[in-house]
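Subgroup meeting minutes
Present: P.N., E.W., G.H.
Scribe: E.W.

1. P.N. recapped why we're keeping a running log of single-chain structure predictions: easier to compare across weeks, and new members can see raw inputs and outputs side by side.
2. G.H. added today's entry (216 aa).
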Amino acid sequence: MQRLALFDLDNTLVDLDQAFRLWVEEFTEEYGLGREVVDWLIALDRAGYPHRETFFTQVREHYTLSAPVEELWDGYRRRMPYLVHCPSEVLAGLSRLRASGWLVAIVTNGMADNQLGKIRRSGLADVVDAWALSGAQGIRKPEVELFQIAATRCGVTLDGGGWMIGDNLVADIAGGCAAGLRTIWIDRGTWPDHVHAADHVVTDLLQAMEVLHRQR
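Output recorded in log:
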């Protein structure tokens, strides 16, 4: 099997949950909503509104904000790249993988401006070979085509196999399996009692990288 490692971005390479909390704290202060709103917004984010347009529609209506949904969403996308953080040990780990012969790419869902901003400002652009963004391609994980694009940009095809690493059992694990890849699921406790087909289960990204280093 070829040494191809495809990584999810949010809550895999970067801690989106932490960045989102920082954004919520700034947002509630900017609009004078009060500290008690922080937990409500975080709960709303986790209650099944992954698409930000839907999220901001709910927020605008609930708090009768005057700003249009698109303005709220645009502000979020501009700010988030400045709030996400990729730990130095993760950046070093990706560099180590590449130095040992691995091709490394990011495969992520999300708006292109937001996701590309995160990749560049976090330092990830300097330690990976390529990326494929759903917002730029018009294709979302778990569709196989997005994985294929990432592989092609690394100069290979999915026919040679490889690995997909991520925290989402549908987008990353089921999608990776459908693409013919072996998978490593980063279990953050958000999918209790779900059946999965991941080849390996770990609790953090560094453990996932060690799994890759053990492959022959």
